[in-house]
Design a protein that fits this description.
Blueprint (H helix, E strand, L loop, with lengths): L17 E8 L1 H18 L3 E6 L1 H11 L3 H5 E5 H6 L4 H14 L4 E5 L8 H17 L6 E8 L5 H10 L2 E4 L2 E4 L21 E6 L3 H14 L4 H21 L3 E9 L2 E8 L22 H8 L2 E7 L2 E9 L2
Parallel strand pairs: 1-5, 1-6, 2-3, 2-4, 4-5
Antiparallel strand pairs: 6-7, 8-9, 9-10, 10-12, 11-12
Helix pairs in contact: 1-2, 6-7, 8-9, 9-10
Amino acid sequence: MNDHVMTQAGPEAKSPGFRHELFPYEGEDAFLDGAVSFIEDAVAGNETVLVAVGAGKQEILREELAGTDAARSVSYLDAAELSRRPGRLIATWQDRVNEGMAQGHPVRAISESLWQGRTTGERAELQYHEWLLNQAFLHAPAWWLLCPYDTTSVETDVLESARRSHPLLWTGGTRSANTDYRDGPYPHTELSGPCDPHEELVFQAGGLALVREKVTACANAHNLEPDRLLDLLAAVTEAAANSIRHGGGTGTLRTWAEQGDLVCEVHDTGYLQDPLGGRIRPRFDQMGGRGLWLIHQLCDLVQIRSNPQGTTVRMIVTLK
């Protein structure tokens, strides 16, 4: 199986086991009431509890739960780090859910992405991630993910996207099906064009050395650290090789810098049908299909846009 030829679960499919629930709330007190209730119910059911929220909310949750059984049952994840690399999030949840199941406990989790301070690309991929979760855990063991959104501070477009991405809704203590949920296709925003100045290279079989030279020149011009350059070279080489193998035998590389990031983009005429390409950890015995996974691990942010006319893989590393 290659990175450009995969299958996608039909839009009519629903998961009988994975509960993906939107929790819109107004302010810190409402968050605390809802989160504590959710955690206490999980602990009473002998479930594994995972919480990925910002440092401030972690602190108030720890204070509220201090001295209770729940305090000893909750594991906290770094929401700031998770929010920076949306392409790695599904694998993180898969690992955590599998660990809980291996210990014989159902899993409940709270995950609140940190939207403030995120770049436009990070925000877009976080929104997409919420929708992809429903595809990723379509046939997974039963587990429950509660996603809080503060309606007093989250931007309207973020909240609207969340309403489209969560099959279930929790408001005022009442749980129900979310009538705003849409299971596909996902309404991607167009990727912005490159900043000027930018460089462009058309490559084909035998041209990977030229690709690496172009990336190295751009990286050196913007003082990218040597170890990050090695990561970026491996990622771009993989994307370009994939274009040659599965994207029509040729591709176009564009490189530029913007807002403290170095950006490399590979475009070809292939079509990636699987929206989860690169986000699911490959099996140890899997033959092929590892390229996009590797790219997600090597870069700080990856954005993929694909339709029958072609595929664009945008790879970003921070210059700081």
